[in-house]
Write a structure and sequence with these properties.
- By secondary structure, the protein is mostly helical.
- It is built from 5 helices and no strands.
- Helix 3 packs antiparallel against helix 5.
- The longest helix has 26 residues.
- It starts with a helix and ends in an 11-residue tail after the last helix.
Length: about 110
């Protein structure tokens, strides 16, 4: 009954604000900071493929947006990061939220 009374915002916040989701978002931010430094400050004789890593760390969701025109692939990276962070947060809550040892009964 308590789970039915939770709002979507509370579930969203609990799934996003935990160590697994925040750690994943920190990795995504670090990769995009590295891409920005590589793009803006490092001179290359030919094109750099550093930007591809932004899609790899947010895959598979960001790959759905990769072939779209204009700035939509970058929107896909943001959506991908959010979807994966929510999934990791929900998995973290599921793995750590259940009481240990209370679900097993002995029929001996």
């Amino acid at each position: 009954m308590a789970a039915a009374q939770r709002s979507a915002g509370t579930t969203f916040r609990r799934s996003l604000l935990n160590p697994a989701a925040l750690g994943y978002l920190a990795v995504v931010a670090a990769v995009w900071a590295w891409i920005a430094v590589d793009t803006l400050l490092v001179t290359h004789a030919d094109a750099s493929l550093a930007g591809v890593w932004g899609f790899f760390v947010t895959a598979p969701t960001s790959f759905l947006f990769a072939s779209l025109p204009g700035p939509l692939p970058l929107v896909g990276v943001a959506v991908g990061a959010l979807v994966q962070a929510l999934a990791l947060g929900a998995a973290y809550r599921w793995a750590t939220g259940r009481p240990r040892g209370h679900g097993r009964t002995s029929h001996a």
